[in-house]
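Final report, closing paragraph on structural work. Over the funding period we assembled a curated collection of sequence-structure pairs, and we close with a single example.
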Amino acid sequence: MLDGLTKHDLETGETEHISFGEQRFGSEAPFIPRANAQSEDDGYLISFITDMAQDRSECIIIDAQDISAGPVCTIILPHRISSGTHACWASAEQLG
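Its predicted structure, as stored:
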């Protein structure tokens, strides 16, 4: 279970962090490149959040270039899912 995400820039030494909040735990956060990406972090991170205080789950989408700004989109799921749900990303072309 993760309680936040941290991004380290190995070239500049800068670090960005986002906390999911108290009693909120995230899953791994696969990277989804933006179409025609201009840099290696030009895209999104997606994570499933389990909120124990509200007994619900969310899917959050974060701009990978500005993770400390928080989610650009939050989708409340109809049921709480188990914490630590695994995920991966595949483009439409990869799915055939």
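The chain is about 5% helix and 40% strand. The longest helix spans residues 92-95. We thank the funder for supporting this effort.
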